Amino acid sequence: MSDAVLLTEPGPGLRLITLNRPAVRNAMTAELTAAWSEAIEAVRRDDGARVLVVTGAGNTFCAGADLSWLDQGAAGDVTPDRLRDRMLPFYRSWLAPRELAIPVVAAVNGPAIGAGLCLALACDLRYAGPATVFSAPFIHLGTHGGMGATWLLPEAVGVARARDMLYTGRAVGGEQAVDWGLASEVGDDALTLALAAAERIAQAAPIATRLTKAGLERAVAGLAEALQWEALAQPVTMATADLHEGVQARRERRPPRFTGT
Protein backbone atom coordinates (compact mmCIF):
# COMPACT_ATOMS: atom_id res chain seq x y z
CA MET A 1 0.00 0.00 0.00
CA SER A 2 1.26 3.50 -0.88
CA ASP A 3 2.36 5.65 2.03
CA ALA A 4 -0.05 8.31 0.75
CA VAL A 5 -2.56 6.64 3.07
CA LEU A 6 -1.69 4.90 6.33
CA LEU A 7 -3.88 2.08 7.67
CA THR A 8 -3.23 1.18 11.31
CA GLU A 9 -4.92 -0.62 14.23
CA PRO A 10 -4.94 1.69 17.27
CA GLY A 11 -6.98 -0.71 19.40
CA PRO A 12 -9.12 -3.87 19.41
CA GLY A 13 -11.63 -3.68 16.58
CA LEU A 14 -10.41 -0.20 15.59
CA ARG A 15 -8.92 0.75 12.25
CA LEU A 16 -7.42 4.16 11.49
CA ILE A 17 -6.95 5.60 8.01
CA THR A 18 -4.69 8.65 7.86
CA LEU A 19 -4.51 10.75 4.69
CA ASN A 20 -0.77 11.24 4.54
CA ARG A 21 0.06 14.02 2.13
CA PRO A 22 0.36 17.04 4.47
CA ALA A 23 2.58 18.92 1.99
CA VAL A 24 -0.47 19.32 -0.28
CA ARG A 25 -2.90 19.58 2.66
CA ASN A 26 -4.12 16.05 1.93
CA ALA A 27 -5.72 17.16 -1.33
CA MET A 28 -7.38 14.35 -3.27
CA THR A 29 -4.72 13.72 -5.90
CA ALA A 30 -4.80 10.67 -8.16
CA GLU A 31 -2.17 9.04 -5.93
CA LEU A 32 -4.13 9.71 -2.75
CA THR A 33 -7.39 8.53 -4.32
CA ALA A 34 -5.86 5.21 -5.40
CA ALA A 35 -4.29 4.65 -1.97
CA TRP A 36 -7.56 5.57 -0.25
CA SER A 37 -9.50 3.07 -2.35
CA GLU A 38 -6.98 0.35 -1.52
CA ALA A 39 -7.18 1.09 2.21
CA ILE A 40 -10.99 1.15 2.20
CA GLU A 41 -11.07 -2.21 0.43
CA ALA A 42 -8.69 -3.65 3.04
CA VAL A 43 -11.03 -2.49 5.81
CA ARG A 44 -14.04 -3.88 3.93
CA ARG A 45 -12.40 -7.33 3.84
CA ASP A 46 -11.24 -7.19 7.47
CA ASP A 47 -13.57 -9.31 9.61
CA GLY A 48 -11.95 -7.97 12.77
CA ALA A 49 -12.75 -4.33 12.02
CA ARG A 50 -15.65 -2.93 14.05
CA VAL A 51 -15.12 0.82 13.63
CA LEU A 52 -13.07 2.91 11.20
CA VAL A 53 -11.59 6.31 12.09
CA VAL A 54 -10.48 8.69 9.32
CA THR A 55 -8.14 11.66 9.82
CA GLY A 56 -5.52 13.74 8.04
CA ALA A 57 -1.80 14.07 8.67
CA GLY A 58 -0.42 17.47 9.57
CA ASN A 59 -2.74 20.37 10.30
CA THR A 60 -5.39 19.71 7.61
CA PHE A 61 -8.10 17.06 7.38
CA CYS A 62 -8.52 17.40 3.61
CA ALA A 63 -8.29 20.45 1.35
CA GLY A 64 -10.60 18.87 -1.22
CA ALA A 65 -10.13 17.67 -4.77
CA ASP A 66 -6.92 18.37 -6.65
CA LEU A 67 -8.07 19.95 -9.92
CA SER A 68 -4.63 20.87 -11.25
CA TRP A 69 -5.07 18.26 -13.98
CA LEU A 70 -7.71 20.53 -15.56
CA ASP A 71 -4.93 22.95 -16.54
CA GLN A 72 -2.56 20.21 -17.62
CA GLY A 73 -4.83 18.07 -19.80
CA ALA A 74 -5.52 18.45 -23.47
CA ALA A 75 -8.62 20.44 -24.42
CA GLY A 76 -10.41 17.26 -25.45
CA ASP A 77 -10.09 15.83 -21.96
CA VAL A 78 -12.20 18.53 -20.29
CA THR A 79 -15.47 18.17 -22.16
CA PRO A 80 -18.54 17.68 -19.91
CA ASP A 81 -18.97 14.05 -20.99
CA ARG A 82 -15.37 13.15 -20.24
CA LEU A 83 -15.41 15.02 -16.95
CA ARG A 84 -18.57 13.20 -15.89
CA ASP A 85 -16.95 9.85 -16.64
CA ARG A 86 -14.04 10.89 -14.45
CA MET A 87 -16.08 12.48 -11.64
CA LEU A 88 -18.49 9.62 -10.86
CA PRO A 89 -15.77 7.03 -9.98
CA PHE A 90 -13.97 9.73 -7.98
CA TYR A 91 -17.13 10.53 -6.02
CA ARG A 92 -17.89 6.88 -5.32
CA SER A 93 -14.36 6.18 -4.13
CA TRP A 94 -14.34 8.99 -1.56
CA LEU A 95 -17.93 8.41 -0.42
CA ALA A 96 -17.15 4.77 0.38
CA PRO A 97 -17.64 5.32 4.16
CA ARG A 98 -21.39 5.40 3.44
CA GLU A 99 -21.14 1.91 1.94
CA LEU A 100 -19.02 0.26 4.63
CA ALA A 101 -20.96 -2.04 6.93
CA ILE A 102 -19.22 -0.65 10.02
CA PRO A 103 -19.50 2.86 11.51
CA VAL A 104 -16.95 5.42 10.33
CA VAL A 105 -15.79 8.29 12.57
CA ALA A 106 -14.02 11.37 11.21
CA ALA A 107 -11.34 13.06 13.32
CA VAL A 108 -11.44 16.45 11.61
CA ASN A 109 -8.12 17.80 12.82
CA GLY A 110 -8.06 20.88 10.59
CA PRO A 111 -9.77 22.41 7.54
CA ALA A 112 -12.24 20.20 5.66
CA ILE A 113 -12.84 22.10 2.43
CA GLY A 114 -15.06 21.33 -0.55
CA ALA A 115 -14.75 17.63 -1.33
CA GLY A 116 -12.90 17.29 1.98
CA LEU A 117 -16.05 18.50 3.72
CA CYS A 118 -18.03 15.88 1.78
CA LEU A 119 -15.62 13.18 2.95
CA ALA A 120 -16.21 14.23 6.55
CA LEU A 121 -19.98 14.26 5.94
CA ALA A 122 -19.80 10.76 4.44
CA CYS A 123 -18.61 9.52 7.83
CA ASP A 124 -21.20 8.57 10.45
CA LEU A 125 -19.77 10.85 13.16
CA ARG A 126 -17.39 13.82 13.17
CA TYR A 127 -15.20 15.20 15.97
CA ALA A 128 -13.49 18.57 15.67
CA GLY A 129 -10.30 20.15 16.99
CA PRO A 130 -9.39 23.78 17.66
CA ALA A 131 -8.19 24.35 14.07
CA THR A 132 -11.18 22.67 12.41
CA VAL A 133 -12.96 24.61 9.68
CA PHE A 134 -15.77 23.28 7.48
CA SER A 135 -16.38 25.09 4.19
CA ALA A 136 -18.11 24.54 0.85
CA PRO A 137 -16.69 27.32 -1.37
CA PHE A 138 -17.61 25.65 -4.68
CA ILE A 139 -19.46 28.50 -6.41
CA HIS A 140 -16.81 30.99 -5.27
CA LEU A 141 -14.30 28.90 -7.21
CA GLY A 142 -16.56 28.95 -10.26
CA THR A 143 -17.87 25.39 -10.00
CA HIS A 144 -20.97 23.53 -8.87
CA GLY A 145 -20.68 21.46 -5.73
CA GLY A 146 -19.79 17.79 -6.17
CA MET A 147 -19.36 14.55 -4.28
CA GLY A 148 -22.84 14.66 -2.81
CA ALA A 149 -22.57 18.15 -1.32
CA THR A 150 -26.17 19.08 -2.17
CA TRP A 151 -27.45 15.97 -0.34
CA LEU A 152 -24.92 15.47 2.45
CA LEU A 153 -24.98 19.05 3.74
CA PRO A 154 -28.79 19.27 4.12
CA GLU A 155 -28.76 15.85 5.79
CA ALA A 156 -26.29 17.12 8.40
CA VAL A 157 -27.35 20.72 9.01
CA GLY A 158 -30.77 21.17 7.42
CA VAL A 159 -31.73 22.87 4.18
CA ALA A 160 -31.48 26.49 5.38
CA ARG A 161 -27.94 26.15 6.76
CA ALA A 162 -26.86 24.07 3.76
CA ARG A 163 -27.99 26.92 1.51
CA ASP A 164 -26.04 29.35 3.67
CA MET A 165 -22.83 27.34 3.39
CA LEU A 166 -23.18 26.62 -0.32
CA TYR A 167 -24.15 30.17 -1.31
CA THR A 168 -21.80 32.16 0.93
CA GLY A 169 -18.88 29.72 1.21
CA ARG A 170 -18.82 30.56 4.91
CA ALA A 171 -16.16 28.88 7.08
CA VAL A 172 -17.75 27.12 10.07
CA GLY A 173 -15.42 26.58 13.04
CA GLY A 174 -15.52 23.92 15.73
CA GLU A 175 -17.98 25.37 18.25
CA GLN A 176 -20.38 26.51 15.55
CA ALA A 177 -19.98 23.13 13.82
CA VAL A 178 -21.27 21.39 16.96
CA ASP A 179 -24.19 23.84 17.14
CA TRP A 180 -25.03 23.26 13.49
CA GLY A 181 -24.68 19.45 13.59
CA LEU A 182 -21.49 19.24 11.55
CA ALA A 183 -19.61 17.77 14.54
CA SER A 184 -20.59 15.84 17.66
CA GLU A 185 -17.98 17.47 19.87
CA VAL A 186 -15.00 19.82 19.75
CA GLY A 187 -11.89 19.51 21.91
CA ASP A 188 -8.14 20.00 22.08
CA ASP A 189 -7.45 16.89 19.98
CA ALA A 190 -9.94 15.67 17.40
CA LEU A 191 -8.25 12.29 17.03
CA THR A 192 -8.39 11.60 20.78
CA LEU A 193 -12.11 12.39 20.78
CA ALA A 194 -12.74 10.26 17.70
CA LEU A 195 -10.80 7.26 19.00
CA ALA A 196 -12.63 7.43 22.35
CA ALA A 197 -15.97 7.38 20.52
CA ALA A 198 -14.79 4.58 18.23
CA GLU A 199 -13.64 2.51 21.20
CA ARG A 200 -17.08 2.91 22.79
CA ILE A 201 -18.78 1.82 19.56
CA ALA A 202 -16.41 -1.15 19.17
CA GLN A 203 -17.56 -2.45 22.55
CA ALA A 204 -21.15 -2.79 21.30
CA ALA A 205 -22.65 -5.92 19.73
CA PRO A 206 -21.17 -6.11 16.19
CA ILE A 207 -24.20 -7.57 14.43
CA ALA A 208 -26.56 -5.06 16.01
CA THR A 209 -24.18 -2.21 15.18
CA ARG A 210 -23.94 -3.13 11.51
CA LEU A 211 -27.68 -3.59 11.19
CA THR A 212 -28.24 -0.23 12.87
CA LYS A 213 -26.02 1.50 10.30
CA ALA A 214 -27.92 -0.22 7.50
CA GLY A 215 -31.23 0.75 9.12
CA LEU A 216 -30.26 4.42 9.36
CA GLU A 217 -29.55 4.45 5.62
CA ARG A 218 -32.94 2.92 4.84
CA ALA A 219 -34.81 5.18 7.24
CA VAL A 220 -34.23 8.13 4.90
CA ALA A 221 -37.13 6.74 2.86
CA GLY A 222 -39.53 7.36 5.78
CA LEU A 223 -41.14 5.77 8.84
CA ALA A 224 -42.84 2.96 6.93
CA GLU A 225 -39.52 1.82 5.45
CA ALA A 226 -37.84 2.09 8.86
CA LEU A 227 -40.50 -0.09 10.48
CA GLN A 228 -40.22 -2.72 7.75
CA TRP A 229 -36.46 -2.86 8.24
CA GLU A 230 -36.67 -2.99 12.04
CA ALA A 231 -39.25 -5.80 11.88
CA LEU A 232 -36.57 -7.84 10.08
CA ALA A 233 -33.40 -6.64 11.79
CA GLN A 234 -34.55 -6.74 15.41
CA PRO A 235 -35.59 -10.42 15.25
CA VAL A 236 -32.20 -11.23 13.73
CA THR A 237 -30.42 -9.70 16.73
CA MET A 238 -32.82 -11.39 19.15
CA ALA A 239 -31.61 -14.74 17.85
CA THR A 240 -27.94 -14.00 18.59
CA ALA A 241 -25.82 -15.10 21.53
CA ASP A 242 -24.84 -11.45 21.95
CA LEU A 243 -28.38 -10.55 23.01
CA HIS A 244 -28.26 -13.09 25.85
CA GLU A 245 -24.81 -11.83 26.84
CA GLY A 246 -26.03 -8.23 26.87
CA VAL A 247 -29.03 -9.04 29.07
CA GLN A 248 -26.95 -11.16 31.43
CA ALA A 249 -24.26 -8.48 31.69
CA ARG A 250 -26.89 -5.88 32.56
CA ARG A 251 -28.26 -8.14 35.30
CA GLU A 252 -24.79 -8.78 36.69
CA ARG A 253 -23.84 -5.10 36.37
CA ARG A 254 -20.69 -5.81 34.36
CA PRO A 255 -19.47 -4.84 30.88
CA PRO A 256 -20.78 -7.21 28.20
CA ARG A 257 -18.38 -9.37 26.19
CA PHE A 258 -19.82 -9.43 22.71
CA THR A 259 -18.43 -11.90 20.18
CA GLY A 260 -20.49 -11.13 17.07
CA THR A 261 -22.40 -14.39 17.23
UniProtKB/TrEMBL annotation:
One record GO biological process: fatty acid beta-oxidation
SUPFAM superfamilies attached to this UniProt entry: ClpP/crotonase
Swiss-Prot/TrEMBL catalytic activity: a (3S)-3-hydroxyacyl-CoA = a (2E)-enoyl-CoA + H2O; a 4-saturated-(3S)-3-hydroxyacyl-CoA = a (3E)-enoyl-CoA + H2O
A Pfam family this chain is assigned to: ECH_1
Keyword Lyase: yes
InterPro entries named among the record's database cross-references: ClpP/crotonase-like_dom_sf, Enoyl-CoA_hyd/isom_CS, Enoyl-CoA_hydra/iso, Enoyl-CoA_hydra_C
GO molecular function list: enoyl-CoA hydratase activity
UniProt KW Lyase keyword: yes
Keyword field: Lyase
PANTHER family: ENOYL-COA HYDRATASE, MITOCHONDRIAL, ENOYL-COA HYDRATASE-RELATED
Family: Belongs to the enoyl-CoA hydratase/isomerase family.
Protein name: 3-hydroxybutyryl-CoA dehydratase
UniProt organism field: Pseudonocardia asaccharolytica DSM 44247 = NBRC 16224
Lineage of origin: Bacteria, Bacillati, Actinomycetota, Actinomycetes, Pseudonocardiales
